Structures are given as structure tokens and as C-alpha cells.
Amino acid sequence: MQELxxxxxxxxxxxxxxxxxxxLIKHDxxxxxxxxxxxxxxxxxxxxxxxxxxxKLDNRLWWLAGIIIAATMGPLIxxxxx
Length: 82
Prior knowledge:
By secondary structure, this protein is mainly α. Helix content is 98%, strand content 0%.
């Protein structure tokens, strides 16, 4: 009988330890999700800002390419007309 009580106490202790471990893991998972969500939001903002800067740079490069082409083609076309 004593052996049975001892086994029950050990099982209850183990169950309690497991319950505490599970609660700790759940808490850690919630924290990780919260931090990940915050990080993802900041990363999306950073990507949007970088995308805007790249678009501006891209537009400037196209304008520069257009000016170079116009400066090259203008005198050629003028020479063909005269």
C-alpha cells in the first residue's frame, strides 16, 4: 500500500512539473509570436521605404537615359534634315 501511495505521489509530482513546463512553453510561444509580429511589421515598413527610394532612383535613371538618347539622336536627325 505504501508503494502505491509513493507511486501516486511521484505521478502527481511529475504531472505537476509537466503542467508547469507546458505553461512555460505556452508563455514562450506567445512572446515569440508577439516579437515576430512586431519585427515583421517593422520589416514591412522598411521594405516599403526602400521600394519608394528604388522607384525614385529608377525614374531618375530613365530620365537620364532619355536625355542621353535625345542628345545623341537630336544632332543625327538634324544632320539628316539639312
